[in-house]
């Protein structure tokens, strides 16, 4: 059963796509969308996890910033596509959309909203405190953030997210982390060795999986230019195994 639902937060109600399994609940999962907002692809992924037995809360963290399925339509495909003119036209549109997201106030508010979603799941009787998080791009970044800020989290699965935290902040992570990257995602791959070292020194159980021939957003099967079927299937299987081990 899936529906939009308001999640209570300290900043007021937050709209979220909530997907419950038809059968027994294996655990709870916060699912954070890409930078394009709570689009149909994210809702579809939430339903996939629900079919695997997870109670999923996928919040809409960007609608109040003007980032919706309508305002971002076509930008992702243009950025990943082969048409250079289309890419050049899309880049300033993306920069304008993302400008408000760079403020510390937005980061603090978003982290608090994600924690509110975690709490809803954690306190659900059927979930019984068994909660993980996963997310893509923007959502991968805030998956790392919840791991830093929420010691009750049991598993963290970021897809191509940033983890721009100090060594002291990383040492607060108690959940095991399984992170996915495409080897052609040059910015993240360049910084990955340093992140692996920092995670190790902070005592975090951190596993990074790299996929040759894949780039950013390789899991998004709604983007014909970015999607890579093989890596996406493998990452999905690894994610389910990881959640079964640490959450279910």
List the helices and strands and how they pair.
Layout: E1 2-7, E2 14-19, E3 27-32, H1 40-51, E4 54-59, H2 75-80, H3 84-98, H4 104-122, E5 131-136, H5 138-149, E6 155-159, H6 167-170, E7 177-182, H7 186-201, E8 206-211, H8 229-246
Helix pairs in contact: 4-5
Figure out the total of helices: 8
Helix and strand run:
EEEHEHHHEHEHEHEH
Strand portion: 15-25%
Roughly how many Å is the radius of gyration? 17 Å
Q: Helix share of residues? A: 40-55%
Distance between the termini: 19 Å
Which class best fits the helix and strand makeup? alpha/beta
Task: Characterize the main sheet.
Answer: 8 strands, mixed
Mean pLDDT: 95
How is the largest sheet built, in terms of strand order?
1-2-4-3-5-6-7-8
Low-confidence stretches: none
Explain what you see.
With 248 residues, the chain is α/β, with parallel strands linked by helices. It contains eight helices and eight strands; from the N terminus they run E-E-E-H-E-H-H-H-E-H-E-H-E-H-E-H. The protein has helices spanning 40-51, 75-80, 84-98, 104-122, 138-149, 167-170, 186-201, 229-246, and strands at 2-7, 14-19, 27-32, 54-59, 131-136, 155-159, 177-182, 206-211. It has an eight-stranded mixed beta sheet with strand order 1-2-4-3-5-6-7-8, sandwiched between helices. A hairpin with a 6-residue loop joins strand 1 and strand 2. Helix 4 (104-122) crosses helix 5 (138-149). The mean pLDDT is 95.
Summed up:
The protein has 248 residues and is of the alpha/beta class. The protein contains 8 helices and 8 strands.
